[in-house]
Amino acid sequence: MTPGAFMGGLHGRYESLLEGAAGVLDAAARARQTGLARPLHTWVLLSLFGIVLSVVLLGHIAETQPYFYAVMGLSLVVYALVRGESLASALVQYLTSPTVVWRWAFVVWAILSLLWTARGGLSVERATTLLEIQIVGLVFYDATRNLGLARWMLGVVLACTAAAALHAVTTEDPMVALRLAGAYRNPNTLGIVAVTGMAVCGSWIGDLKRAWQVLVGYLVIMLLAVGVLASSSLKGITGTGFVLGSSMFYPRARARIALLAAIGAVVVTVLVLTFEPMTLLWEHTVDRVEVTVTTFETAADVGQSLAERSRFIGKGLELMAEAPFVGTGLNTFRWLSDEGTYSHNNFVELGVSLGIVGVLLYYAFHVSLLARAFAPGNRTRLVGRFAIMFILMMAVLDMASVSYAHKLSSLLMIACAGWLDGSAAGGTASAPSREEVHAQ
Predict the structure, then answer these.
(1) How confident is the model at residue 28, as a pLDDT?
(2) CB 165, CB 182: distance < 8 Å
(3) Residue 120: is its pLDDT beyond 70?
(4) For residue 36, what are the CA distances in angstroms to 23, 29, 44, 47?
(5) pLDDT of residue 91 exceeding 80
(6) Angstrom distance (rounded) from CA 316 to CA 355
(7) What CA–CA distance (Å, rounded) separates 138 from 430?
């Protein structure tokens, strides 16, 4: 070997060593930024996936319900062990968050209502659900505030909601049941879960760079739209229109949403004309919409449902007048009204249960989130866009559903609060992605 060749090889090895050292230093910097080494970071991602999967799917599908608490509990334990003492600091942040404090005030008020309710069992069950949401919410808050994992969490939610829609359309026969519920007991739940995924995709679609990413985004939105159509849920249809319409306010998403609407119209038309199950689902959905916008006076199930909901609201307002400020206790509408079910209106349900105080505390959380999400530094970024779109959509849907104890929507709002707090503090949550920088 000549001296020149030897020196050339030595120089090459020296450059490789420098590149390797630079890679190690870069990985160490990323680990310091999130406070986790790479293997531990992977365990955090897996634990978050297990939690979201449990909330969206495992707790609802009959075959997987026995594994719900095992997967949820194991995921929470793994997350707590990995985070260690850092989770204690996150708990302090969680309890003192200027936004989440409204959610805490609402939950405390709901628990205090047990002191004056006459229906202990049902009320305790609902209070327990609210407390469970707050406990799991610590993980969502910490992951988005301190670990910068908001995009990962939204991605997992999108994957799980798409899986829920796929499960519905592949396991049930529209020839037997005109309204599909999939993993859920109520088709309306499937509709709301599907539009939640659509809100994630609608807020993300403008950031996608590559053609294959946009194509995947289109396919996911179409799958979720089929899930809404399968459920024939008026809330799902309303949410779909809200997501598509609000996405048009973002310039980078406008052209893609318009193209998606055109492609979707063609695909739906072809399926409805050539595929009998889709024809049945389409006809039933159209019938429900027509009845909604025309008249209550029909013997169809839609007319009966709308008439019942109108009656529920009337009875709810009467019950609210009896205890306007403090309410009658959690989950009491179903037995005080003699209807045997909830009021199908979040404002009425909260008004009867927790009075005006409960309504104000619950929606103060929404208002606080929206005010911060609309700030110039937040509204052009993914989580900010999602928070605006999702919270406004849920406020509209609350006029026909009860969401205050809904786990997925509540946890997503807590996650948004964590991201907003992290951005304000200049933590890991504040670093925008390359797509977001380009959008700004």
Answers:
(1) 39
(2) yes
(3) no
(4) 17, 10, 9, 14
(5) yes
(6) 11
(7) 19
Whole-model pTM: value is 0.85
Residue pointed to by tokens 């509209």 = 396
Tell me the C-alpha to C-alpha distance, in Å, between residue 14 and each of 18, 19, 21.
Answer: 6, 9, 10
**Rounded Cα gap, residues 81 and 207, in angstroms:** 34
pLDDT reading at 156 higher than 50: yes
Q: Copy the structure tokens of residue 417.
A: 């609060």
The answer to whether 413 and 366 are in contact (CB under 8 A) is: yes
User: What b/e string do you get for 304-319 counting C-beta neighbours within 10 Å, with b at 16 or more?
Assistant: ebbeebeebbebbeeb
CB neighbours of residue 11 within 10 Å: 10
Closest by Cα among 358, 413, 409, 430 to 111: 358
Interacting residues of 221 by C-beta distance below 8 A, sequence separation 6+: 198, 201, 202, 205, 260, 264
- Residue type at 272? V
Distances in whole angstroms, Cα of residue 376 to Cα of each of 111, 210, 294, 361, 384: 37, 27, 41, 26, 10
Residue 436 has pLDDT above 80, yes or no: no
Tokens, residue 243: 């997501």
Amino acid making up residue 284: H
Confidence category of residue 388, pLDDT binned at 50, 70, 90: very high
- Token pair belonging to 190: 């499937």
- Six-digit token string for 214: 């946009």
Rounded alpha-carbon distances, angstroms, from residue 191 to 179, 188, 227, 289: 10, 5, 7, 14
3-state secondary structure of 58: helix
Render the burial of 20-59: b for 16+ CB within 10 Å, e for the rest. eeeeeeeeeeeeeebbbeeebbebbbebbbbbbbbbbbbb
d(CA 128, CA 405): 10
| Whether residue 5 has pLDDT greater than 70 | no
pLDDT at position 185, please? 84
Question: CA-based Rg of the chain, rounded to a whole angstrom?
Answer: 24
Q: Are 148 and 33 in contact (CB under 8 A)?
A: yes
So what's the pLDDT on residue 293? 57
Backbone angles phi, psi at 381, to 5 degrees: -105, 160
pLDDT of 148 over the 50 cut: yes
SS (H, E, C) 206-262: HHCCCHHHHHHHHHHHHHHHHHHHHHCCHHHHHHHHHHHHHHCCCHHHHHHHHHHHH
pLDDT digits (tens, 9 = 90+) for 28-48: 344 444 455 667 789 999 999
Over the chain, what is the mean pLDDT?
84
C-alpha to C-alpha distance for 247 and 134, rounded to whole angstroms: 30
